Amino acid sequence: MKTFAIILSATTLSAITACVPQSNDPFVPTQAMAQASGEPIEDLGKGHAIFMRQCTQCHEKRIPNEIPSKEWRHIVPGMAWNAGLSKEEERLVTEYVLAASKVKPTVPANN
111: which DSSP letter? Predict the structure, then answer.
């Protein structure tokens, strides 16, 4: 019975840890980005999704911190217009790239 309880505990722990997002993708929003920007991580996630879906159609994937924050404020509006983004989508992308530009990624982009 003790062996069964240990196996059950180990299996449950494995299942729980598998559900926790653990990404080495430097593009994915992190708590550090949310804290640095003061923006909710949910909004950063939405902005990230739009960034990956829309921006990478024409541009090479680049980590947003490769471009200074002040430049993103000039880049995003024109690109958002070209991509046909709504004002809300533009806001979310801007929040994401500004947040990402404030933190140094722990893993280099290989994509």
Answer: -
